Amino acid sequence: MRISFLLHNAFGIGGTIRTTFNLAQALAERHEVEIISILRHREEPNFSLDPRVRVRALVDLRTEREDPRHRRPPKVFPAAEYRFDQYSALTDERIANCLAGLDSDVVIGTRPGLNVHLALQGPRHAVLVGQEHLTLDNHPPGLRNELRRVYPRLDALTTVTHADADAYRRKMRLPGVRVEALPNSVPPPALPPADSSAKIVVAAGRLVRVKRYDLLIRSFARVAAERPDWQLRIYGRGEERERLRALINELGLYNNVFLMGTAPAMEAEWVKGSIGASTSSFEPFGMTLVEAMRCGLPVVSTDCPHGPGEIITPGKDGRLVPVGDQHALSEALLDLIQNDELRRTMSEAALANSRRFDPVPIIGQAEALFTELHEAKASGHRERPPLRVRVGARLVNRGHLVRDAAFAAAVSTMRTMRRGNR
Amino acid sequence: MSQGTVEEAPRVDCRVDREGRITFELNLPEARAPQLLLRLRPRKGQEETMGHAVELVAVPEEPGRWRAELGANPRLSEGRWDAYLLPETDRPRLRALPGLRDLRVLAPTASAEPSLDEGVLRVRLPYATKDGFLSVRAWQRAGHAEVVRLEPGQHAVTVHGRLLGPEFGPGAAAVLRRRGKEGPERETELTAGENGAFTFTADYRELPTDPGAAAVWNVLVRPDTGARPVRVGRLLDDVADRKNVFVYPTSTVRGFTYWPYFTLDNDLSIQVDPATETPGD
């Protein structure tokens, strides 16, 4: 099959980019695969990519940032999408042209706004797959309604957790659309796993508020007081860096807590530690949890929606603590820190249990799904339903629709006011 | 994307073992007698003077995979050694890219006892340069004072560390030396413990300042009255660029800010700057 991915920016850093690369290069073993990066701002991607996967960009920000069309807001890309401000009349035009000329068998969108493009403009002959790497429940109401309007035109929708797939089935009417959970995959590390002897707790992710590294640092104050021989290393960069630095100074943790910056290969950093930590208040999947486990680290994580609870088996290969609970977090970390034997058995369990996220079974699942849809399409295709939501279809859906519509109206008013203030 | 990769240097994986050996491994499918070159990076505008070629040996049962081992020899003098590959003798050298660097034995809480060779500490640390290439940091110190922890206070910073090489004797002291030609020096009392352990407190108020002038004070330890002071720094873990990772708070004392920090070479210094007046002060 010829498979095309639509990706916001293949040249950035983040879980969606990594998981798309993993899937793309695994599929490239047997299929012709390309990644269409809507934006590009540098020469080479940050993550390495199998050369068999072709990458092309639609808008090159290095030369086209000042294009007048790029200063006008988009019409197709939904206003309630998180990346709305990075899209424009220029991206609308380029994506539309790209999709019109695409002769791929399967086209996969990797974020809500791109799935909207795909649903509205995707080639008739192709299988159209929307991927949800975030969660339905966390989307603003205006976005939920736009998705509700256009997603029936997709052939399949994949989520990264079962919880999110359930939410889509429950709260949206998507007749004829396959809704399936397709977890992110993490390849087996090349390095031998950690041996649980190092006195280092490792966390990794963008330094942004939702990751709640402030909570992790605060909870580590008690750990450092009881076990000053232990370190916390936080990898990543982001807008919270200076605030986190100030917090480390305020708590006097500069000998125990370190903001490490980005690492070119996290794998080599995980194996220096013996416990992984994730303290997000929202984690649609939680790639770093699986990465840490695949390197032999049990993970202490907040039980936030939706990923951690579907990755960690509490008490076996890690711990789940309530979101925002600093005390429980310190306790859980100290439990593992104070008990070498527990850490060792959890480390072994983490290695064994994380194998279910290996690319082989997960790519197998994705490939089977794409092949099945491709064959169904080839043997008499399903008509794409017209737009317009049929209000009154089912009461439960209608309830969600009406609620979202009311919220959306309120939000768009606020948005208009915000724009006016700029 | 695939264009240009043919001429691109391969990624080189590195591993440091408990004996301090560095093993390099890489794929070079076409090569027959490739070599790994380490070149001491010269100062800006100067010529390369020092280099070592390390033999690459074919890895058994892994066609196209090559391995080089860097044992105690050659000794690398202090500096940054950029890694290059010479696929064939008549081909131009390629700058090596970093692959996976397994430095877990260097991680601070797992580190093996540092070994000194006739009183000289030699540290080698493979790292990725800012522009994304593979290089090896090397330190070679006849005597070294390793920082274990810093406790910055309101007017002072207390340094806990460990002396490697020379032993403490009468007249041991910490020495602060202002950078620049014939910069002044200040001595501070030092408490020596067992096994080379030491503690001293550098009081910022004892450092002379010139109105409006910034200065940097290097921190050293003098093992005894007649001994040559050795530099205080932190070299014994896996962190190659410490300056932005091991960051300590700044204090303001009598119109100057004092910031204990690790230099680009991972040595300890104190940066002194005139405090900027805040409006309304």
Concise structural overview:
Chain A is α/β, with parallel strands linked by helices and 422 residues long. Chain A is built from 16 helices and 13 strands. Helices cover 42% and strands 16% of the residues of chain A.
Characteristics:
heterodimer; A: 422 residues; alpha/beta; Rossmann fold; 7-stranded parallel sheet; 16 helices; 42% helix; globular; B: 281 residues; mainly beta; Immunoglobulin-like; 2 domains; 7-stranded antiparallel sheet; 7-stranded mixed β-barrel; disordered N terminus
- Rg of chain B to the nearest angstrom? 22 Å
Low-confidence stretches of chain A: 390-396, 418-422
Give the N-to-C terminal Cα separation of chain B.
Answer: 57 Å
What is the helix content of chain B?
A: under 10%
* CATH domain topology of the largest domain in chain A: Rossmann fold
Structure description:
The complex is a heterodimer of chains A (422) and B (281). By secondary structure, chain A is an alpha/beta fold. Chain A folds into 2 domains: 2-185 and 362-421, Glycogen Phosphorylase B (Rossmann fold, 3-Layer(aba) Sandwich), CATH 3.40.50; 200-353, Glycogen Phosphorylase B (Rossmann fold). In chain A, 42% of the residues lie in helices and 16% in strands. Chain A is built from 16 helices and 13 strands. In chain A, the strands form 2 sheets. In chain A, strands 3-2-1-4-5-6-7 form a 7-stranded parallel β-sheet, with helices on both faces. In chain A, helix 5 runs parallel beside helix 6 (141-150), helix 6 (141-150) packs across helix 16 (395-421) and helix 8 (213-226) crosses helix 13 (326-338). The longest helix of chain A has 27 residues, at 395-421. The radius of gyration of chain A is 22 Å and the shape is globular. Chain A starts with a strand and ends with a helix. By secondary structure, chain B is mainly beta. Chain B has 2 domains: 11-142, Sandwich (Immunoglobulin-like); 144-274, Immunoglobulin-like. Helices cover 0% and strands 48% of the residues of chain B. Chain B has no helices and 22 strands. Chain B has strands at 11-16, 22-27, 35-40, 51-55, 57-58, 65-70, 79-86, 94-95, 97-102, 116-117, 120-128, 134-142, 144-152, 156-164, 173-178, 185-192, 197-203, 215-222, 230-233, 251-253, 256-262, 268-274. In chain B, the strands form 3 sheets. In chain B, strands 3, 4, 7, 8, 10, 11 and 12 form a 7-stranded antiparallel β-sheet that branches. In chain B, strand 7 and strand 8 form a beta hairpin. Chain B starts with 10 loop residues before the first strand and ends in a 7-residue tail after the last strand. In chain B, 32% of the residues are buried. Mean pLDDT of chain B is 90; it is low at 1-6. Classes of the chains: A alpha/beta (422), B mainly beta (281). Chains A and B meet through strand 10 of A and strand 9 and strand 13 of B. Chain A: GO terms for molecular function: glycosyltransferase activity. Chain A: Residues 196-350 form the Glycosyl transferase family domain. Chain A: Residues 13-187 form the Glycosyltransferase subfamily 4-like N-terminal domain. Chain A: InterPro entries: Glyco_trans_1, Glyco_trans_4-like_N. Chain A: This is D-inositol 3-phosphate glycosyltransferase.
